């Protein structure tokens, strides 16, 4: 791990948002640092925040505060940590951007925070380093935190920039989270260390003291910490413990299986030999049983077949009778339907005529009403014309009479009378004027009302005409859709072969639809049933075929077995001959004569003696090979000097590196010439240890307290290249002492060294070849011995082979005959299957047709439902059209009347206007008469009198009288005419007095009346035609109903909805033809039925047989008697043969059961008893026997191999586990390798771990391991015998703790640490550490932790470098227990020695603490001036170098940016 260069927090809120960090940076420069903050100021929070980017989610929380609780808004918080990479490799920025998750972002997510972590590697400071990365923006001289979304977009852009090594990771995504931590591991930032160590030591203040609380003694420390650390380090490439568990599981199970294998083998061979005869007898028994069952089954199938045929024929006969009856009924029904259709058609004709008559009568009545109305109007107009003449003559008469009267009184004073007449006339005219105005207003209102009604009717007509257009369009669509159903109906009948037609009402018979649906369904079910039946027959035939083929295979197998057996026996016989010859050759190696070929014991003993001699020679050669290999290792490693174990241990205790001179020469990288010169100048280098000055000084000051058997030369590393000038030839003179030194310079020359190594390798290989030759000779003699030892060949076996071969030849001939018979039967069954399959293919096509038919019928029904709806809709549309047309006709008639009324109103209004004008003019003449006496006379009399009095009279009295007489005659004539016509026309006076005569109106009225008369006459003629046709239709309908009663005894025709118009004659002829065909079929069925009944009677004695396997029965009914007789004879013969063979099988099994070898042996006893219980079931007996024989065969195959392999397997397992324990042992000793520091003037190794000498105790460890594995083996075997699983036993015992403790002993690991007091230091055991004070215990825990971290990080392949990789420890208030200077100084020295950066948060002070740190930040909480109760954390760099670049600190306002989404 590298070290932390800088830490930066942006927008961090804590203590429930009462404490804030705007933007603070802490420059650490990879050095130890102390951050001082008062208690309660947030030290634990800052530690929690620094750890957050390097641990998984569940490790971010502390006991007191959940990580997510710090983030309460959508404004992000940034935690940035810059690492200074080892070896000047640059910088690594690790950062976390976190905010409270918005509800809209992902409603289904359980995450409450949005977290993005990012990593940026760079060589030097840049615009995206920890100081410059643009997470804060400047706007209007204010700094604003960049929003989460914008920052994520920035990260995405940086990620895509190929010039940058930048990536970001969504920590809510498990995949990217894993990628993030994998990336950190590339920089040796291991999240497991942060989670298991840094997290643990910060659970509470000074938490390091609690890290080893469960390890109060050395045993606990080794078990809980040292061994797991060693296991993890050794488990880099593979999990060796898991491999050992699997190997041991396999070994134990193999070991259990190999007990008493030899005894078992002999018994197995005997059983297998006896089983051959048993199997032969069983197969004969099975064959006989199968034949009996086959005959019985065939007879049962014949009976079932005939019964089924008889039932089918009876059903067929009944069905044909029912069909004939049904066809006759159909003919009658068709005739009835034909007559019914005629009745309905005639009734429809009558209904249509009646509707036409009613409609025509309505038209006639309407025309008659209009005609009478016109006549009445003409009469009124005629009366008005006479009334006008009447008024004219009356007026003229009155004027003349008055004029005559005036003439008689011309000498009298007329002024008062004229005034009274004028006053009276003025009143009358005023009243008439008012009446005229009122009548005019009435006519105007009537005219207005008529205009409005006309407009309303016109609007209604417009709507109705639009509705007619819409309905007409709708009618066209519906008619088209209704018509389209005709094609669908025709298509269905054509495709599906049905005669489905709509009735005369254009609807289907619903019952007919149900019948067709049932027919289709029944047809489908029938076809499907037939297919299933045929499929079952196919299956039955296939089963039968399979049975026959199985029988054929069994026969073939049996034949093959017999042939193989015969071949094997021949082979055995040949092998026996060959083995005898081979034995003769083998015994020649031990100088035995050929006649001793069966002298078993003497042959084996002679081979054993020979093998023992060869093994002694092999052991001597192996010892020589070990010595050569030792020399070879020295040549390869350069260890010319060998130190004793004690000396190596003492040197390690002093933390002195052991570097051999020869090893240094090989790996210093110098050229050969320089190394030769170095050896020449100082010949002791290859035989010496190389140390630096400090190590030699330490060596001089502190004695090892150990003795040496020979001097050990030590050379200072600085003086390696210094010439000694002490050599004279091969003699070195050194202060009165001379040494003979002859160093082989070839060891320095890589090529020469390789030659030496090669020569030594060849020498070792030559020895190995000899060993291999000895091994091969041993193997050769063991092989020859084993051939004799495990051979089953005896003289008795040899003679028995000949007898068996003879018997097998006879059996092979019988099986061949059976094979030919089975082949014929199989061919017959295959033909039947072929025929059935062809039928199935046809049925499949029929099924598809049926499916298509059902689909078409379904489509037809769906279309029919739509058709019915359309037809109903069409009827409604037609009804609507008719109603609207009627409304339009009435409206148009009403408009015509209204127009006439409007015209009359216009005439009346004109008349009233004229009358009003006349009245107004007349009134103007009489307005001068304002007062007077009213005279009771008619208006005309008064006016005439007034005119006579006011004008000059020119006529004579006689003339006036003559004129009056003439006018009286005219007046009386007109008055009589008016009275007579008014009475005749029934016209009231008011009607003609209010009517104004107009000649034009008279002509128009006459024309209109003429037209209406013509229309009326035409309508009357049409009505008479309809009435005549109706009478004829009613007469014919009565005739048709009479025919129904006479021919079908039916009062009424068939329901109209059930009738379909069709070609009845053709349909009836078809049915008659079908009746003839059906009668013919019925006659044929009766003949077949009688034949079947006769044959069934002859098979009554076999009625108790049941069908076990369906087979096809093909019997000629004419030859049924002979076939049944043959079946009975065959059945009796097979039964007798079956009893005989069952008896033979029983005897063989009993003979085997009573043999001494099998009586008490459970391996054989239970299977034999099982076989005995299955004698009556030969097939099961055979399966069981084969199962037993096969299982015994597998057992025998493994017996010999397992016996030999089990010991080798055990040796390999023990050797491998012991090697692993040795590695563990050596690694435990390495844990204290970097724990030496100087305290005062003394060099102390703060942690000293000593273990027992491996080589000295190696044999003891082997014995312990063997015993340990044997205990596990015995325990596991007991579990297996109780049918228990041994996985838990092995897992619980094969682990690093138990293996090391059981073989070496965890208690043999001696752990010593120094107790540091103010004035002295003394070594104590780990067991005593718990008794130390809090500070001393903290220091001891730190030493252990530091050593473990150094050990885990140490690269064992680098033997020269003592460099420690950088490490970081963050501690919360570590000085609560460790504030004394005498404890803090070694703690800091240990940290420096292990290259560990300490970042300590504390509230304590004092020189004892401050003096230990080169980098100190003082953190203060400053109250906000703007927000009450809020404090801002500000840092002061109290001690340490400042970063070179200028840093500008400022507070900024936090604002939300505009959300993009």
UniProtKB/TrEMBL annotation:
What sections of the sequence does the record tag as coiled-coil?
A: 303-337, 443-474, 531-634, 764-853, 939-977, 1002-1029, 1251-1289
Which terms are listed as keywords in the entry? Coiled coil
Q: Does the keyword Coiled coil apply?
A: yes
- Whose protein is this, by species? Clostridium pasteurianum DSM 525 = ATCC 6013
- Return the protein name: Chromosome segregation ATPase
